[in-house]
Amino acid sequence: MVLEQVLIQPLRRIDLIQPWRAAGKPSGIAGDSLLAGGLVLHFGELAVVFTSPLRTSSCQSGTFVGVADTDDLASLGYRMNVVPAADLDCLFSACERRTSLPGAEWLAARQLRQAAPLHLMLADFRQLGDLWQLHFLLLGLGWFSVGYRRDLDGAIELAPPGTGLKLDRIVVNTPDDEFGWLHPASAHPFVLDGWCWRSAHPRDWPLTLRKAAQSHADPDAFYASTLRRALTARFAQHPRYRGRLLALTLPVEVKGVPPGVLDSVRAMCAQIEAGLRA
């Protein structure tokens, strides 16, 4: 039986760790979905915790479960654990962005109303593509699924089955956007040419480079070349973000990054990963 420890228990709160950010939308809410790097469902004294291997671990395997009528173990993509609620503070860094949604607030965001407590009645696993998902039934509200969205930066998605967020491209305008770690101004320091760079944004370039850019015969080419070197150094020195860069499957547009620069950086990062595995 799946999640037998919390069956018939009311869902009291949902915690979103590194909640999804979208302009004009409440943090963590994207359409009919809740999206975050980590998800916690609170049922009384116990909590069901979902975490993203892409964001939190150097090991990219998620939890494997045994499924009836199959001979092999099934991968969920994410990691799932049932833990005492009192132990949650040990699982996540205090500096992580997070938000909490009481059941009523979550339902209001989806334009639904439910007066009775949301008791967990059933839970099982269902296959979607090469991964499996946890599906659970909330009394009076229906079925929900928890899926692993490696295509969306390794986010955990809670949504009614079949209603997951669909994107055709990623657009990043500021470091505070979702996927903001791709922006040149994202504050991930690195070392290049003996200098410590606070970010890859031109305002944080060493003075000699800024002067060279102003006097260069082809400033656009100089800018693209320098930014390519800076972003490659940044991702080379931040392995977790390098893994997230290599996991991208959608077209990406980042303000301040000329076309082709990110593709070149990804190719260099792929070579770095191949060298580490050799």
Structure description:
- This protein has helices at 53-56, 103-109, 207-215, 219-237, 239-246, 261-277, and strands spanning 13-19, 29-30, 33-43, 46-51, 64-66, 73-75, 79-84, 98-102, 120-128, 131-138, 142-149, 155-159, 170-172, 190-192, 195-197, 252-254.
- With 278 residues, the protein is α+β, with helices and mostly antiparallel strands.
- It has two domains: 13-165, no CATH class; 171-277, no CATH class.
- Strands 1, 2, 3, 4, 7, 8, 9, 10, 11 and 12 form a ten-stranded antiparallel β-sheet that branches. The protein has a two-stranded antiparallel ribbon with strand order 5-6.
- The protein is elongated and about 70 Å long.
Structure summarized in a few sentences:
The chain is an alpha+beta fold. It is built from 6 helices and 16 strands.
Features:
31% strand; ten-stranded antiparallel β-sheet; single chain; alpha+beta; 278 residues; elongated
Query: Helix coverage percent of residues?
Result: 10-25%
Structural domains: how many? 2
Quick check: average pLDDT? 87
Shape: elongated
- Main beta sheet, described? 10 strands, antiparallel
Q: How many H/I helical runs? A: 6
- Separation, N- and C-terminal Cα atoms: 42 Å
Number of strands: 16
